[in-house]
Design a protein that fits this description.
- It contains ten helices and seven strands.
- It is an alpha/beta fold.
- A seven-stranded mixed beta sheet has the order 3-2-1-4-5-7-6, sandwiched between helices.
Length: 243
C-alpha cells in the first residue's frame, strides 16, 4: 500500500462524500449491477472502507458478504453501518483473507497498491470473478494526494488482468459527459477539488450532489475517466464458501 494515512482519511472528512457524493453513489450502483451479473452467493469486498458499498449491495443482492480494509477506523464505521456483516482488518500488500468466494470486489482500491499485479495473482485462486472499479486517465495532484500509485489509462487494467490470472469478460469506461464536466469545473474553479467534494455536507451541498447524481444517469457514452471491469479467474477454487 502507499504511505498515505488511511486512518486519518476516515476521521470525518470523507464519510459524507462516500454517502452523498454523486460519483460514489453511481459507482456503488454500477458495481452492484456487475456483481449481480455473475454467480454471487459469497462476496468479498476488499478495501471496503466505511462499508457503504456493502450496505447497498446487502439491500439489493442475496449473498453472504465479508468486508476487509487496512483501516481499523474505517472498519469501526463499517461495523456500525452494516452490523450483520463480518469484517477483518488486512493489508493487501501482505495477503488476502482466508476462504474462497464467488466474487471479489475491489472498488477504488488497486490504484492504492504499489504491486497491483501481485494482488491480482493472489486473488485469482480464491474467486470465480473479480469486479473492479478504478480511476482512468492521467493521475493528477488530487490522485497523488490520496495515495494513488497510478491511474488506469487506456486498456491498462484489461492488460494487467489478462496477464495475472483473469479473462476479461466485461470492460467499460464511464463519465461522459456530466461527470467529466463536473471534474473539469472543480479543478478549474478551485485549487483543492478534493476539499470541495469532501467535508461535511450541508443541506445545500446535499441538494447539489443529488442534482448531479440525477444528471450522471445521462453518462451513457462508453467513455470517461472511470473504469469498470469483470475478470473471470483462470484458476478458480473448486468450491466457493467462506471458511
Amino acid at each position: 500500500m502507499s504511505e498515505f494515512d488511511y486512518e486519518d482519511i476516515w476521521q470525518g472528512g470523507w464519510n459524507d462524500t462516500t454517502k452523498y457524493g454523486p460519483s460514489c453513489r453511481h459507482r456503488r450502483r454500477i458495481v452492484g449491477n456487475m456483481v449481480k451479473c455473475v454467480p454471487h452467493e459469497t462476496v468479498l469486498d476488499l478495501g471496503c472502507g466505511d462499508g457503504a458499498l456493502l450496505a447497498e449491495m446487502s439491500q439489493r443482492i442475496d449473498a453472504q458478504f465479508l468486508g476487509s480494509d487496512i483501516s481499523e477506523h474505517a472498519l469501526d464505521i463499517a461495523r456500525k453501518n452494516v452490523p450483520d456483516i463480518p469484517f477483518v482488518q488486512l493489508d493487501l500488500g501482505k495477503g488476502v483473507p482466508d476462504g474462497t468466494f464467488d466474487v471479489v470486489v475491489m472498488s477504488e482500491v488497486l490504484e492504492h497498491i504499489e504491486d497491483d499485479e501481485a494482488v491480482m495473482r493472489k486473488v485469482a485462486p480464491i474467486t470465480k470473478h473479480i469486479v473492479i472499479s478504478v480511476p482512468g486517465g492521467p493521475a493528477d495532484k488530487v490522485d497523488k494526494r490520496f495515495g494513488h500509485f497510478r491511474n488506469y489509462d487506456g486498456d491498462l487494467l484489461k492488460r494487467k488482468l489478462q496477464a495475472n490470472g483473469f479473462d476479461v469478460v466485461y470492460f467499460r469506461r464511464w463519465g461522459v459527459p456530466f461527470y467529466e464536466l463536473t471534474q473539469l469545473l472543480l479543478n478549474s474553479c478551485t485549487e483543492d477539488a478534493a476539499a470541495a467534494a469532501g467535508g461535511r455536507y450541508s443541506p445545500m451541498k446535499k441538494f447539489v450532489a443529488n442534482t448531479l447524481y440525477i444528471a450522471f444517469f445521462l453518462n451513457v457514452l462508453p467513455m470517461g475517466s472511470q473504469v469498470f471491469a469483470i475478470g473471470r479467474s483462470r484458476t478458480p477454487p473448486k468450491e466457493t464458501a467462506q471458511d
